[in-house]
Amino acid sequence: MPNQPFRRLSVFEATTFVVQADRAALRQYLLDLFCDVAYQEGEFTLSSGQHSAYYINGKQVTLHPQGGVAVGRILVSQLPVETIAVAGLTLGADPMVTATSVTAAYEGRSITPLIVRKEAKGHGTQAYIEGPVLAPNSEVVVLEDVVTTGQSALKAVDRLRQAGYQVNRILALVDRHQGGAELYANQGIEFEAVFSISEIQARLAELY
Questions:
Q1: Which residue positions form the known binding site?
Q2: How many CB atoms lie within 10 A of CB 161?
Q3: Is the entire prediction scored with pTM above 0.90?
């Protein structure tokens, strides 16, 4: 594949592409988009408190017009058939759950989007979870943009389980391989990431 194959597309061409492309081509588009707009090198402090020589801003992809469509299509293709809803901890997962729910509707599936607050809101219902109330034991898949230690998605899992839902699977866009997968395995939670950090860095080396 030539370097930066998607940069040369017009807005119309890019939009048509992400709507119509097969999964392999769509995944390659997302990989290049992460390299192009989300990956940075420097000195960073992550939400986990760890220091890192690189940072991946997943929202640059999930809030990208064509990127959001691609994310929705990829994630829907990875949802088990019994999935009733997708959810994630605000703010990183918010555009992901919305894109996935909307994309599912276009594909004839009904997937409810839920947003899990970090803290209960201090007014109204004081709810931790925003979205329609589902039947007890509904199957919910947690979404995350970038997994480092895994604590953020695990907090969402805990809140959803406290609400009476079944949560046994986490889907992420990127796994930084810094303990998240191991944490989920120890908790008996299935985990899958679209990309590993090694794949993104290898593609960066090809492109630049």
A1: 117-118, 121, 123, 144-152, 176
A2: 13
A3: yes
For residue 31, give the 3-state DSSP assignment.
helix
The Cα 48–Cα 1 span in angstroms is: 36
Q: Which domains, and CATH codes, for the chain? A: 11-207 (3.40.50.2020)
Tokens of 14: 């890019």
Average pLDDT over residues 25-34: 95
**Token digits of residue 197:** 């950090």
Q: Is 42 helix (H, G, I), strand (E, B) or coil?
A: strand
Angle at the Cα of 67 from the Cα atoms of 16 and 56, rounded to 5 degrees: 155
Beta strands across the sheet bearing 139-147? 129-130, 112-116, 85-89, 139-147, 166-175, 190-196
The H or E element that residue 84 is part of is none
Enumerate the H helices of the chain as residue ranges: 11-20, 23-33, 59-62, 65-77, 94-106, 151-162, 180-186, 197-207
Q: Which amino acid is at 52?
A: S
Query: How would residue 1 be classed by pLDDT, with cut points 50, 70 and 90?
Result: very low
| Residues making up the binding site for 5-phospho-alpha-D-ribose 1-diphosphate | 117-118, 121, 123, 144-152
Q: Which residue has the tokens 């953020």?
A: 152
